[in-house]
Fold this protein.
Amino acid sequence: PVLLRDTVSSISNQKIDYELIIVDDCSAIPVTGFKGHKVIRNESRLGEANSINIIYRECNTKYLTIVSDDDPQPSNWLAPLLQFAEQNPHFLVYFPRTHVRVDNEEYPLSTMPYSKRRLLGLLQMHMFAGCLLNVDLLRSKGVSELRKSVEYPSDFLQWLELAYIGSFVFVPTSTAFWWKRNHQMSNTIPRDIKYRLFLINVGQFVKNHPYRFQLIREGITFFRALRHIVEINPKYKTNQSTLTLMNRFCEARLFFER
């Protein structure tokens, strides 16, 4: 509750007109005390993807941004994004600089230049949280849900999916925070399971991508290198099933399985 209040307070400090929707995913202590904001409580746990889709369906604004309940944002975040979007309305996603926050430390998250034709250009994109989405464009393309529910979600998969629909643009005058906290779910998933789920999901998302052949070629190189690191470095504990998946990815078969 404390982190949620800090996050809502940081949004209130943005110098723009906004609508705030809070989705309470059936928490043990119901979310209350946010007068003037819409609070939607799920009757059962639906997970992050379904909660994001609820926000997408319920929002009545031209643009949308998704922020976790434990990610308070700086004051120079939304206004520059919105100003740029109004001047350049043909983009699908407007993404800010991302600064990682760990306790009292802060450092910028370095990324490669965005390109929907390059695997690493999507793999090393900024965090999805804090980006501004063009809702009008999404709905004009017939997008009914913003995020698919998969066993191991990741921002990379979200970028892959959005790359089907439109283009992204970097807005250097805006900065968003990504807070790394010990309670985050991704920190509790064993590395081996992460590898397996990630590879499965990548295969499912990329096999019908309009630039799949370019992505596959780069993916083969990338995962061959990753496989080599896993095989020779004892600190990366994995098992044979994960290596098998990496091999199949490298052979590009995952993309064409039905």
